[in-house]
Amino acid sequence: MRLGLLATALGGGLFMAFAAARADEGMWTFNHFPAAKIQETYGFEPSPQWLDHLRMASLRLPRGCSAAFVSPTGLVQTNHHCARDCLQQLSSPARDLVQEGFYAARQEDEVKCPDVEANQLVGITDVTPQVREAVAGREGTDYGRALREVLAKLQRDCAGGDEAIRCDVVELYRGGVYDVYKYRRYQDVRLVFAPEEDIAFFGGDPDNFEFPRYDLDIAFLRVYDGTGAPLNTQATYFAYAPREAREGELVFTSGNPGTTERLDTVAELEYDRDVVLPESLVYLAELRGLLLQFSAEGAEHARVAFAKLFAVENAYKARLGQFRALVNPGLIDGHRRAENELRAKVAADPQVQQRFGDPWAAIAQAVAHYRAVADRMEVVEEGRGPQSDLFAYARLLVRAAEQRQLPDIKRFQEFTEAGFPFTRQRLLANTPISADLEKVLLRAWLVQLRRVLGPDDPLVRDVLGAQTADRMASDLVDRTRLADPAERKRLLAGGIEAIKNSHDPLIRFAQEVDKQALAIRRDVEVNVEAVERRNAGAIAQVLFAAKGTDAYPDATFSPRVSYGIVKGYEENGRPVRYYTTMGEAYGRATGAKPLALPPSWLRARSAVDPLRKLNMVSTNDIVRGNSGSPVINTDGQLVGIIFDGNSQSLGGDFGFDEATNRAVWVSVGAVKEALANIYGTTRLSRELGL
Amino acid sequence: MRLGLLATALGGGLFMAFAAARADEGMWTFNHFPAAKIQETYGFEPSPQWLDHLRMASLRLPRGCSAAFVSPTGLVQTNHHCARDCLQQLSSPARDLVQEGFYAARQEDEVKCPDVEANQLVGITDVTPQVREAVAGREGTDYGRALREVLAKLQRDCAGGDEAIRCDVVELYRGGVYDVYKYRRYQDVRLVFAPEEDIAFFGGDPDNFEFPRYDLDIAFLRVYDGTGAPLNTQATYFAYAPREAREGELVFTSGNPGTTERLDTVAELEYDRDVVLPESLVYLAELRGLLLQFSAEGAEHARVAFAKLFAVENAYKARLGQFRALVNPGLIDGHRRAENELRAKVAADPQVQQRFGDPWAAIAQAVAHYRAVADRMEVVEEGRGPQSDLFAYARLLVRAAEQRQLPDIKRFQEFTEAGFPFTRQRLLANTPISADLEKVLLRAWLVQLRRVLGPDDPLVRDVLGAQTADRMASDLVDRTRLADPAERKRLLAGGIEAIKNSHDPLIRFAQEVDKQALAIRRDVEVNVEAVERRNAGAIAQVLFAAKGTDAYPDATFSPRVSYGIVKGYEENGRPVRYYTTMGEAYGRATGAKPLALPPSWLRARSAVDPLRKLNMVSTNDIVRGNSGSPVINTDGQLVGIIFDGNSQSLGGDFGFDEATNRAVWVSVGAVKEALANIYGTTRLSRELGL
């Protein structure tokens, strides 16, 4: 189970992950990489140096994407949809960079993205013993607090007060292993090139998560160093491969898969199926309806809502695939068989039983507890909470003021010394705010608050008592000054006193809501999350004892490597070829969205090689968060950029089926072709060595 | 399983329905009423005359509601929400009858509702032997055709060509019994009185399906006879009871519960849980988002979308309750145990097995077949189809032209001699059309069509190829002439030739869509519906053999009687009183929707008895379709009008739990009080004998 909406919800057989992973399955950590197994299967053994290079040339974009250095001077390649927030923030009513694309013909034309951070993994340290020691013998509230404190301390010690370093403790195998991941943090990231939305997302929402596919979903950014110069990445970048990947070729991908739940218990999976996913789906569907109608009201509304609508539609379709995987009765039945087998092992060994008790039952109880409070938690705290940016600012400011007074180890993650630079960047970024859109989103949330909590709930009565949701949302947005970054800076700098003295209505409102939100968050931390962690950790130890640790942990939005081969598949009995071509994109275009090609493509048609491969699929095991991941051949050269999985791969949260699950990527051949013959980006092409 | 969205989807234990129903459970037919059991439990035995009076004073409103005669001169009482379509159709930008209410101070002020029909059940005939004979030995297509033909013939024979008579064959026990229900049909129904929306639906969507509740959800209509005079109902009406109902009092309700699935197989219930309900919920949620935003665009948009938004929110909340009931693992497990027991009985008896085979497996196969085609069926034919009124007209006209050429017994139900008068009334009614709203609904459907079928589907390519959904919807709505009832009348009268020669773009478009729609509908009729019917009928016969017929059938939107007592219940450990008062409504009002009382109520506050009971609950077993049902005491007098069930009752599609399931109704005492002291409706109060 994952709480809320932003964290996601989906896992095959318990055994798939823990027994020796089959075939190309697995999202492997850099420090436990199955190099020997790959040698055995494919005749190529990645050396430690090869892996170090892979790690150092790869990047995490903490909003949920991956990326890679692709030149000696800090050039970064990722997906268009991973740069979409930046493109939208840099747009104006006069110039819509999302739709029109962007190209900095000169280096000085590169524009800073307001709130992009990039992380480069520079080290991993196992801290499991320290964590075990800190929580030994503790239960309930006490366990949760001790765990939080030791994690905060480990992160702080690792970073040593250097804001250019970010350290995250990563909980692997659901608490079986704790590692500290040390990243170099880059916050000066600038926009270099993006194609037009019409080709980056050709086929639109109907084609999302489908294959065959015809998208140039790429963007180039550049990391600058502390002196304002392009970062020197001489030693740590992927060169473009001189030839495109071939059918059957072994390829690797290095990225940050978000979350999987392949190790979840049956109680958690059933909760996902029965509650989390359906409730998320209806929440997202309503939001989609709102945003579609808002966008239909005019071009400017369509422009300002674009990135949000994409995010909602993308999340909706991903969750629908996950839900459909989970209602397939075979899936949960498989987990149940594996779980029963393990439970029987524990039951048969009094010593093991004495040590661990019945962690499955304990987790089921935690799930039941959550079930009773989930609606309130999700609507006031996270998951189905307000989508309004202004409200998010207000809440962050209110919390920062309180949290920053506490000792570091007592704070929520986003306010610790380790987490705060990213929070502050977000708070102070000069990003445009659409008052119209803010009103719609805030109103929708107020309506939902009343719907979920009921008109007689004290918060609803206090907040909405004698006002309509419509009036209240309008008042708040019209009267707050938080759209101004200077005001946010002032409030942040002023700390608790500034917040206390603020008459900003949105600050007052956020304080009101936060009283409830913090109470419910604390309840969930103690009675749900701590219980799940403690007991999932116990299950992991039982599993290690039974089956060894020669397997990969669930995805945790931290760097992982997967391997696979370039390969088609079968769907409804007919073969699906492993690639599509640029010529086919032309053939499929109708001239109307979502099948309209941009003018640049139409103009260049005769210059484009129609047989050039555009998108490819491979058996690499990926999920959301892998967007923008580099695809690498055995020479360590870039052959593609992942931008999607096929619809079959959406069940990947719960397991992996090599027969049909595929990663979908843009082939570097198409990037070369487009840059040279469609966009004429000489400076960029030269830098890429094309 | 029910197909699509409009038909609903929810059932407790198989045994609950078939074993002697427990306690007050049951939606009983008039011809198999458990009078002796009631005598035994409550000491009152409804006589045949008492039941005849109940039947003749009750009405069905075929759009999904119930009603009753309440005066000797054709006065009808139902819910405000059952008259909402009429109120909206009679409104204009200048005068919003939904919000403002309506009162005809003189008889000549009563206004005809454009498309309301009322049905009065005058006779029931068992035709099971004729049906069995007609389908004996048939399978597949052949079975489906034979069944349709014999049903059409029986209906036609019953009505004898008299349009004032409507005959429906009602399939009871899922095909165990076939009865012909003969109704008197009234199509001249006029509006007499409705209160304001703010009190009819006080608490709005958040309070819908909740109790305690504070709604005056009533409306008065009047049936006129063929001569244009009020219908003489001297012998067939319910007098208002002189005193309100008391706690513990035995009460009856006579109405038309829509659908229940208490006899469905496990395969069907799982399909509902995994597919039908979640897919309906997300469809409705998106529609809600669209309509909420459309309504926020201005007062006139809010007005024209009001009835549709209510319908969508109401359906959404009902389905959410059904879904939550179904994911409760106990529910389906209970059905499974009962089903396994019955299957074991069949397996143990070679003769029975020889006769029936394995009907459960056959139904599971039909469900699997439907699963594969459901998306297409529902998006092009029904369920998640277009919500546009103009498109509905176009499709009805196209189909009517083709179908009316066929022999009566070959037509779809809505085009048979028996069904057509209602269809025609709907087609020709002079109801206002909002072009803005039509465009939104049509666009949403086109977007969904592409999303579900994919951009490469031939229909999508033909229909949407080089246009955006937005442009296409606008063009169709701007260019069609079907908003004009005279044009619809002309096309209907002109038959197949008029349709062939029509250049109306919406007619052309409907023809295009209908090619696919009819093909898929035929496939589903043959491979799903016919299989389910045949095998559900077989299961019913097994059940009759095992347990007798002393039980009620699933609801089929035909007249039923349920009995129960006025009684509170417990919720989360605290008692819920059986009534609310008018004074409490005043106390709860905040002045802002959805807790705003209308000006009439605010003005009259000092004149209103605060202790007057407003809403009451009783243990009567009801579901959707029972809205507007009269609640009757043992003297046959009216004590209330049902308008809702509590949230616990939403699982009623699958079973009945007397501990918490409650019917919610307006007490007649509150109606008297409001008419006398708030609305001053002297003429109406006098007619009611108050």
Automatic annotation (TrEMBL), chains A, B:
This is Dipeptidyl-peptidase. InterPro entries: Pep_S46, Peptidase_S1_PA, Peptidase_S1_PA_chymotrypsin. Coiled coil: none annotated. Pfam families: Peptidase_S46. Residues 1-23 form the signal peptide. SUPFAM superfamilies: Trypsin-like serine proteases. It comes from Nitrospirillum amazonense. Catalyzes the removal of dipeptides from the N-terminus of oligopeptides. Its EC number is 3.4.14.-. It comes from the Bacteria. GO terms for biological process: peptide catabolic process; proteolysis. Keywords: Aminopeptidase, Hydrolase, Protease, Serine protease, Signal. Belongs to the peptidase S46 family. GO terms for molecular function: dipeptidyl-peptidase activity; serine-type aminopeptidase activity.
